[in-house]
Input
Amino acid sequence: MARPEAGSDEALLRSVAAGDASALTRLYERHAGALFGYLYQLAGDRMAAEEILQDTMLAVWRSAAAFEGRSKATTWLFGVARRQAHNRLRGRSGPETIGVPLPDRPDQGAGPDEVAIAAAGGTPVAAAVGRLPDHHRDVIALVFVAGLPLADVAEVLAIPVGTVKSRLHHARAAVAAALTAQEVPE
Output
């Protein structure tokens, strides 16, 4: 295996594995925006996405030595982020309420979907994407929000590239159909 260039993401991960906190800071600075965008699409909530991003960077700090260089560092980072998101969001029924008094009435405010759509400008496209199944939203977020190539998306999701292409096609078709039903030009 070729030795990573100094300053490359792969070299930074090796430095993180050796305990270099400044290397983790540089990785964060390089990738936080794309990771946050992806996590926000998964979580649908800014605060949750920020927490998952912090969980992700902590997991990178703890497991950088597990990076073997068989994939790109960015692919590995998005894989860590995806696992952290699914761990946090799995079975989530709402915010943690231990020690917090619950109100007598349910909150009549906007739910997470409405807040996410409003944060995205309330666009019909955002609403249509928000209604996609998780496996289609994952692909949309990794391709269009994170900007990963299809091969990297396949690696992050541990599925064949053909499946990524199929899910992307079906997601686009579903969004187009939703926009057509609303008579919004594509």
Residues 79 and 157 are 7 Å apart (CA to CA). The domain at 8-93 is CATH 1.10.1740.10 (Rna Polymerase Sigma Factor; Chain: A). The first helix runs from residue 9 to 17. Confidence is low (pLDDT under 50) at residues 93-117.
